[in-house]
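Checklist before submission:
- one chain only
- standard amino acids only
- sequence pasted in full

Submission:
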Amino acid sequence: MNTDKIYAESIAKEYAPKDNSKIIALRKLDAKAKMPATIFTYTFGIISTLVAGTGMCLSMQVIGGTPLLTALGIIIGIIGFTCTGINYPIYKKMLEKGKKKYAFEIVELAKEISEGK
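Returned file contents:
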């Protein structure tokens, strides 16, 4: 097996112009199904990490320094870590919902592409 030839063909395929609008439409539909879940996951993950970090700073008395703020920091940290922990299950549910929403269109378009070649 000539691995150099296979590698060269894969690189050439990557840079070749894509004239087939059905493939482009399929990629767009796939991205449309996955994008809301991805955006939500990154946003929610960043926010919950910042909340957890704020709670840690309060509880370790980096910010503040009173016993009341330390107790509040522990509570805020627990909330932040809980949100971080549930981020992935939420992502999976949202991704599943997006895939269900566009499943019929994607499958039909994929059948058209595979039968057309």
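Reviewer check: The mean pLDDT is 90.
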